[in-house]
Amino acid sequence: MDNSTPTPPSQDAAPPPAARGRVAWRAIGVLAALAVVAYLADQLTKLWVTSTMTEGDRIAVIPPLVHWYYIRNSGAAFSIGENVTWVFSIIMTVVAVAIIVYARRVRSIGWAVALGLVLGGALGNLTDRLFREPSFGMGHVVDFIQLPNFAIFNVADSCVVSGVALICLLTLLGIGADGTRHAKHEARADGPAAGTGSGGEERPGTPGA
To answer: How far are the Cα atoms of 105, 172, 197 from residue 182, in angstroms, in the given order?
Structure first.
């Protein structure tokens, strides 16, 4: 008869399939909602800028910290790589498709928020690349937020950078996209206890001579 005490279930144990399904749909909903909000915020602010300002206009908002400065950027976020516009169009397309395909695996709300921000920002700037002048796939992105000693950017840039920063934080905290937390000492905790046999019974010591 086995009188050993049953081991309590680990707090990091995977939830049952039904629970995983509920969490997955909730995470996907958060990701989609954040992507839509980020995209609309980016496009609506750009619409406001292009309809009320002329390129090159500069308006003080919170002087001397924040100004609206309307420019068109052929490069990536924060005006990086202005001579290779088509490369960034391809990169943003690949990023957006990859996030959409990967979304079904996301069960962490934190990861859903991060990927939703990146997706919405990527789609926002990709829309400019595809449909703004001078040509399809080579369009210039509307930038208008100016801070002291910093590049001029837009809402989409802010969303992408915020999402990437959150992904880095979640990774450092050991939180996976599937919602599991990777403990630093997981291997040590799961290893067999010293001085015990495979059946959990204490090994008898070697008798002295």
So the answer is: 17, 10, 27
Model pLDDT for residues 146-167, shown as the tens digit of each residue: 999 998 999 999 999 999 999 9
Residue among 42, 157, 178, 190 flagged as catalytic? 157
pTM of the predicted protein model: 0.76
The residue written with tokens 């997955």 in the block is 24
Tokens describing residue 115: 């990927």
- 42 counts as catalytic: no
More confident residue, 183 or 2: 183
Q: How far apart are the first and last CA of the chain?
A: 34
Cis before residue 64, ω within 30 degrees of 0? yes
Bond prior to 9 in cis (omega within 30° of 0): no
**Phi then psi dihedrals of residue 160, to 5 deg:** -65, -50
Name 34's Cβ contacts closer than 8 Å, sequence gap at least 6: 112, 113, 116, 117, 119, 120
Quick check: is 143 catalytic? yes
Given the residues 12, 143, 178, 190, the one annotated as active site: 143
